[in-house]
């Protein structure tokens, strides 16, 4: 595990890609899951201890905001050949075991991670319903080693502000976790 910080470089606009959605085993367009209110794109994976640390909160967060018409998409961009725990087959197992209420996509070519300049897992991007970036960074201040409770506070605050119609200039609050396992 290599601790890596998220990038300060941000993409301003949400973009559509076609990726394998592991629960169905079919390629699907991300845009089919975008919301008119807000869309949360999460770069996660199966084996990262930072992601394992927050999985329960990811599910709670999505269950809290999905009824409010905010969508969530999880993407794994790791090299599954070098990291077989992150293969689509194992992603499907984790999806069902944890009961993810959001689609879990496999970014085999890593083009999506490169577009968003994602560097680590977990890393979050929140877009308004118009597709403009509102937030890029961490879920909250909790990490496996720091004994701070997992609350999802940073993401929750942005989503609540969106629901309340507040104007949000793009906010970057660096995340850190495992580096994305790039293909060589």
Give an overview in words:
There is one protein chain. This protein has 184 residues and is α/β, with parallel strands linked by helices. It has a single domain, classed as Glutaredoxin (3-Layer(aba) Sandwich), CATH 3.40.30.10. The protein has four helices and eleven strands, in the order E-E-E-E-H-E-H-E-H-E-E-E-H-E-E. The strands form two sheets. An eight-stranded mixed sheet has the order 3-2-6-5-4-8-9-10, covered by helices on one side. A three-stranded antiparallel sheet has the order 1-11-7, covered by helices on one side. It is globular and about 45 Å long. The relative contact order is 0.26.
Give the oligomeric state: single chain
Largest pleated sheet = 8 strands, mixed
CATH evolutionary superfamily: Glutaredoxin
Strand sequence of the main sheet, in spatial order?
3-2-6-5-4-8-9-10
What is the overall shape?
A: globular
Task: Write down how many β-strands occur, each being a DSSP E stretch of 2 or more residues.
Answer: 11
- Unreliable spans: none
CATH class: Alpha Beta
Number of helices: 4
Over the alpha carbons, how many angstroms does the gyration radius reach? Answer: 15 Å
In N-to-C order, the SSE pattern is: EEEEHEHEHEEEHEE
What is the count of structural domains? Answer: 1
What CATH calls the topology is Glutaredoxin
- Helical content (DSSP H or I, runs of 4+): 10-25%
User: In CATH terms, what is the architecture?
Assistant: 3-Layer(aba) Sandwich
Structural class: alpha/beta
- Distance N to C terminus: 17 Å
Residue fraction in strands: 25-35%
> Mean pLDDT, rounded to whole units?
93
